[in-house]
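Standup notes, protein team

Yesterday: finished cleaning the Lunasporangiospora selenospora set.
Today: Mitochondrial carrier structure.
Blockers: none.

Input for Mitochondrial carrier:
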Amino acid sequence: MSTAVKEQSAPLKPLPFQWQFLAGAVAGVSEILTMYPLDVVKTRFQLQVGTGGADGYSSIGDCFKKIIKNEGFGTLYRGIIPPIMVEAPKRATKFAANEQYTILYRNVLGDDFNKQALSVMTGVSAGITEAFLVVPFELVKIRLQDKGNAGKYTGTVDALSKIVRSEGPLALFNGLEATLWRHATWNGGYFGCIQGVKSAIPEAETKNGNIARNFVAGAIGGTFATMLNTPFDVVKTRIQNQSKGVVKKYNWTLPGIAIVYREEGFRALYKGFVPKCLRLGPGGGILLVVFDTVSTLIRKHILVEA
């Protein structure tokens, strides 16, 4: 057996928190810079009630075409500042919290506890932790991505100041409950699925093989997690786009899901699923590969393993 295989077979000690934070930050920013336009398209579909009329979007290609033609190419990156600002701490929190919850639960439940169940538990816990951090940034991002707000906000700072001034600072936490649902289900599905896929795929004997294994596990995990959490994401998007002065149609997640289902049918609960899946499937692979690669570099060049 090669040295590489021996190293991969031996369990690695979790990185210290500050290095987990750095690795998660690099992974998150890498993913968002690559995949962000699909997030804009996803939001447009989720805000579209029914077919959206003459200006509605019929497909991903149609959405991209209409956005670029009617609003300009730069609109595909409109609202990117809030997620970039939160992406580093958000992704860092995702991976760091997952590592810390893993240590906590192993101490409580024992090392022989079912690994996949442990991965789901730690993922859900990490997702709940992450949700509290991202809510204000998600709300500002969604307001900026909505084409109906194109002339309302000139940019991130303007949107933030107008929301706080007209709706109050607590408005930044509208949709917290829906965000908790969204992040808990995504992270639980993502980390649980990764554990299952990695258990089924033989360990690689080369560095490139290990990268490919991580990408496949992350991509499958991201796709599965997206299937689980899209209905919660649809309702979260609609809750956070409701500004002060309008009668709020969506208030809580489960009643909101029921309203969408009753008025628009089951398929409406998966509006934006394809662009979301195209982003978070490969995006999940990018996250895992970059996080693992940065973690390996930190262990090799910065930390001295005992």
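Follow-up from PR in the comments: The CA atoms of residues 13 and 283 lie 26 Å apart.
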